[in-house]
Amino acid sequence: IAREKGNIQFRLGVGVEDVETMAVNDDETQLLIHLEDGTTHETNHLIGADGKWSNVRRSFPELRSQSRIITCPSFGIHLDCPFLPSGWKPDGMYVIQPIHKEECQFYILASPRPKEEGLSISMVANNETVTKFPWLAPPEDIKEGDYGKGGWEDEYSALPKGAQTESSTLAENLEKLFREEVPAFYELLESQKEVVFGSARINRRVSWLKLIPGEKNEENAYTTRDGRVTLIGDAAHAMTPSMGEGCNTAMESGVKLVQCVVEVMKEKGEVEECSAESLKEAFLRYGVRRPKEVVSVQEMSAERNMIKKKQ
């Protein structure tokens, strides 16, 4: 749809480095967007959809100051299986618990890929798991200023320190653990065990973007006070993967923003084009409304990301 409009420019593979407010004259300002390739773009309004470590968000103190990255104690070990085990349904998700689940403190999620192209296997662990199995220790938590220096995969596909020389040890340890703790599942994987366990990657601990109270009890908002910059997706409300709601809420936020634009246009009798003033009002409405709908989902997801022992 966007391409058919003809007046929309796509720049793939180039991220936002910084955004500044630039004076055009005594009464007018513009947003100046600096891209990673050194080019710049001027605009009146901006939608930041550049992920949890958003440079758009970091460019505006009023947005940056009201959020904080929270790291959870849990993390994942990802493995790939090139086939779908016989008898497994191609849709849904399988949850596999270890024999000594209270002692081991992990569980396994196995999700069939589309068109029966194998399994995506995630072993969900936490700090208590590492106490028993030190070789599962994840890489150090990423720092906000370091994100992206090694590529966007840094957070989700990071290898632990020394993994290039110790990957065989990781594979061997995981194979032994699966054989002892999830024997029935291990038997399904055994015919391709070298491929499956050789693909193992230990990801970083999961993190999410928590809103914190603003100054003077101001409402949290995804939009700057001047109504020119707003955030959607992970840039606004990144969450842990435990409920699988990150993508859903991101798409919903896009829809909610459009609904606010349509709402304001109708109120002002605008049909073909949305004025700059209407867009400002729509950004402000969305910015205040959307956090009230999303924060509870974020908090629930973070809570479910914890693995707790029975008392």
Indicate the percent of residues in helices: 25-40%
Overall 3D shape: elongated
Q: What is the structural class?
A: alpha+beta
Radius of gyration: 23 Å
Q: Spell out the helices and strands N to C.
A: HEEEEHHEEHEEHHHHEEHHH
- What's the overall average pLDDT, rounded? 86
Q: What strand line-up does the widest sheet have?
A: 6-7-8-5-9
The low-confidence runs, each spanning 5 or more residues with pLDDT under 50, are 157-166
Terminal CA distance reads 54 Å
Number of helices: 11
Strand content: 15-25%
The largest pleated sheet is described as: 5 strands, antiparallel
Number of strands: 10
Q: What can you tell me about this protein's structure?
A:
- This protein has 311 residues and is an alpha+beta fold.
- The chain has eleven helices and ten strands.
- The chain has helices spanning 2-5, 55-58, 61-64, 101-104, 127-132, 163-181, 183-189, 193-198, 234-237, 246-267, 276-304; strands at residues 16-23, 29-35, 40-43, 46-48, 67-81, 94-96, 106-112, 119-126, 201-211, 229-231.
- The strands form three sheets. A five-stranded antiparallel sheet has the order 6-7-8-5-9. It has a three-stranded antiparallel sheet with strand order 1-2-3.
- Strand 1 and strand 2 (29-35) form a beta hairpin.
- Helix 6 crosses helix 7 and helix 10 (246-267) packs antiparallel against helix 11 (276-304).
- The longest helix has 29 residues, at 276-304.
- Residues 157-166 have low confidence and may be disordered.
